[in-house]
């Protein structure tokens, strides 16, 4: 049992380690991919913004050239356009300049692109030379800048909107790939200390396979060690039965001889000590048998019939106790009859030993949709809440009970309940002012 607690702690440690690995890898991958995606998105956005911004300016320059090429080369027109349109483009001829500053500008400049200021307002201008004279096509710089900015931001917005979706996708992909480790850690945390089967290595990240393989090697070593300990307890208990039986026979023969009263008292104490040791050996053998035997073929067991067998067995030693069955319904459970007999007899023996004369011990069973419930309740002094976990440990006995025992009874009952994946709870009595209520729940699946 000590090895079981060690194995249980080891399994809990493994589960915590797997959870830590999962959170660590998930956190690192999530943060790493997020930062990388944000950096790439920023670079891509800046590049697209820059290219679109300058490309829009180039397109507007091309538009100025196209407008200039469509203006008639003859000087018959006075002014192609002297009012602003949607593109904020103005067209002037060297023969009909709008003001002296434009006329001077056309005289000084040859064909090409220029930046000029007219009436304190900046323009982008293109001068086109024809046979009839020079043509000036100019566009407001403010409009061009606004158009370029809007075009650039329109190109960047899809990237900015896509970034959160990409981050969500990264989180989903990382979590999906970490699910095998999460399932593995949950499976380990839900295992009992009896289950030392190797952990699966399929469908888990290759970086964790080595760690899981090392855990499987550890579980294999722990399993072999536990089997050695179980065999040792079983063999030692079995080997000690014969000497104890021989000693008991010799003491009985000794009691037949004429002895003094003092010698008879000492022989009686020896006989009691031998009986206690024989009881301890029987309990150790029962515990070893439970731990070592594989599950036999199970069948339906009538719990009320087991109750009657137990009462018949303990009644000669509990004549001063009121033991009875208080449930009226017949309930059949699936399992091994010997397991249920040993379970109920162990709990009844415990109640008989630790309750005063005249106490009442009630046995009952009920069935729910998902489980079978077995109850053993008495009106003795009970067990304090602080001791209820400890008394389920092997060889632990409450001080001051004045009862001779080995401290294995409740451990054996707990072992049987674990075999059926159930739970054993020690509670205050439901129907008496004081006492102990042992509640056993065995799931149907």
Explain what the structure shows.
Helix 4 packs antiparallel against helix 5 (261-292) and helix 6 packs across helix 7 (337-353). Strand 8 and strand 9 form a beta hairpin. The two termini are 26 Å apart. This protein has eight helices and eleven strands. It is of the alpha+beta class and 445 residues long. The protein has a five-stranded mixed beta sheet. A four-stranded antiparallel beta sheet has the order 1-4-3-2, with helices on both faces. Strands 5-7 form a two-stranded antiparallel sheet. The protein has helices spanning 2-70, 100-108, 141-189, 206-255, 261-292, 303-314, 337-353, 409-419, and strands at 89-93, 112-118, 121-130, 133-140, 299-302, 322-325, 332-335, 360-367, 371-378, 423-428, 436-443. The protein is 56% helix and 16% strand.
**Main sheet overview:** 5 strands, mixed
Into which percent range does the helicity of residues fall?
55-70%
E-strand count: 11
How far do the termini sit from each other? 26 Å
Order of helices and strands: HEHEEEHHHEHEEHEEHEE
The averaged pLDDT comes out at 77
Query: Which structural category fits the helices and strands?
Result: alpha+beta
Number of helical segments with 4 or more residues: 8
Any chance you could write out the topology, listing elements then pairs?
Elements: H1 2-70, E1 89-93, H2 100-108, E2 112-118, E3 121-130, E4 133-140, H3 141-189, H4 206-255, H5 261-292, E5 299-302, H6 303-314, E6 322-325, E7 332-335, H7 337-353, E8 360-367, E9 371-378, H8 409-419, E10 423-428, E11 436-443
Helix pairs in contact: 1-3, 1-4, 4-5, 5-8, 6-7, 7-8
